[in-house]
Amino acid sequence: MKKINEILSHLKNNPEFRKINTSSLISKFIEALPLKLKKGVKFGYVKNQTLYFVLTHPVYKMEFEYNKADIKSLLKNFKIANVEDIGFFVTNVIEKKEIIEEEKPLYKERSYGIFENKAKDEKIFKKFEKIREIIKNS
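RE: above sequence
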């Protein structure tokens, strides 16, 4: 029986899955960039023998312009799908950060947790005691 890594390497070498190889090479190339450039890259893709970087802020676009020659020399080592040029632009889509709201109870607890636990089963007895602790803490 074949191992999963053998199957994946076989699929990866198949010409039908060329885009998977290209996208993995692009992500490796982005990881190889210097930290000041890597932080600004949202993702990259290849179109018409040009590697495009989608950037998160206009400041990163200026940094990429300044370091364009260095990026091209680094690109020669990676040999990504006949890429001859690079391009970059800033996305106009603003990322929305989700604010996690803490769930507040809709009512004020009126009980003080004072009750007699008459449960005879040990599991049920422990559940009632947990409920009592929750009531006392709230």
